[in-house]
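Protein modeling request. Please complete all fields; requests missing the sequence field cannot be processed.
Requester role: graduate student
Desired output: 3D structure, token encoding
Chains: 1
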Amino acid sequence: MNFINKCMLIASMVLTVGLFAQAEEVPASVSSNPCDNKWGNDSAETARKLSLFNQYYQEKKYVEAFPYWMYLFQNAPCIQKRITYSGPYIIKKTLRDSTYKPRFSGLVDTLLLCHQKRIEFFGDEGYVKGKWADDMSKLQPKNRDIALSLFDESVRIQGDKTSYDVPSDYVYAGVKQYKKNKLTLDSLFIILDQVTPIIDANIAKYTASGLSVKDSLKGDKWVKTQNAIIGMLKPYLDCDKLTELKQPYFEENKGNSSWLASTVKLLDRGGCEGQQFYFQCAEALFELEPNVNAAMSLAKAFGKKGDDSKSMEYYLKAAELSESDEDKFNIWIKLAKTAKNSGKYSSTRDYARKALAINSNSGEAYLLIGDAYAASASSCGTGDLGRGGVYLVAVDKYLKARSVDPSVAEAANAKISKYSAYFPGKEDAFFKNINNGDTYTVGCWIGESTIVRTIGG
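Delivered output (457 residues):
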């Protein structure tokens, strides 16, 4: 990340020098390995201050606890982990008190120093840097560029273990910088690309079935994080703006799968699946990295565009690449539907039969075959029973669908009722020397036999 990398070059110098210089009266003992003597130079005074601090802290009287906390942070910061862990929270509470508002700047420096010292004394660098970055971004906005570098370091270290609130805080800081013309739109989207896989992984993990209530609540938090980020970035996810931003770099990056993947995701979030530039990038990415998900995305996008031929092309590629019977079944069903919508009724049956080869009890597949037959009544109704003969075989499929799959019974019954009304008339069949119960074969591409049922007197 170009912007972030530049920030990282100056971050360590500014943080180390600036915070130590400006934090409120933090003596040298804090910076000279105070954990070697965790009770400080005056153990009796430390014990007294610690007792009073813990008393007020447990009573949630944070303003009253602050002077004792400050003494401990200055003189015995390792006496308890709580000193550096709770320091930022205590200072934020204290800053709400009018008595301390004149000391805002110095106390914020001390707050930020707490994060730095917590890492130094107790580790957990990735997690703490996420908190450090957010506090710096919101309380010391002049250093928000440094905060962005801290966010970057945090999510790189933590990966999928990133705390649920960090991605939205990171994007919030980026949006603030963009609004002040201190961050490019492209850099803002790079932040989005950085946090998206983390969000996706945690949503998948914590919204799966069979989880505990505790884990399900984590899933809710991650979904809220995702929605918050989408809300913050929605004003910038405009198709024309995104295309203007990315298209000039397509030629030099059409062989770069990482660039293509991030661009496709970005365009997808902006609802640009119908734009020509989206297809250009998505197809280029598929050529470099063919996979089921990419093929399915392209198939759906071309389908929305109304290009059923290209949609079917990518569904077929998805079927070839899929290793899961469940996925293949779903793909064959989608292909059958697309073929039916395109008027390719013979292909509809072919794909539905492929689905039935995987799941012989798919009522949906039988319904699709029945629909293909019914739609072919005018073109295939050239036999002795005319269109009525075609409706016979169509209803056969609807009856089969109902018998193997109760979930489609309502839809099947509606179709049976509709097309049974178009069965051959008894008198017309009689003049063709055909009677109820006879076997009748429908020709054309259908080529199926049925038992004759007639209507009327």
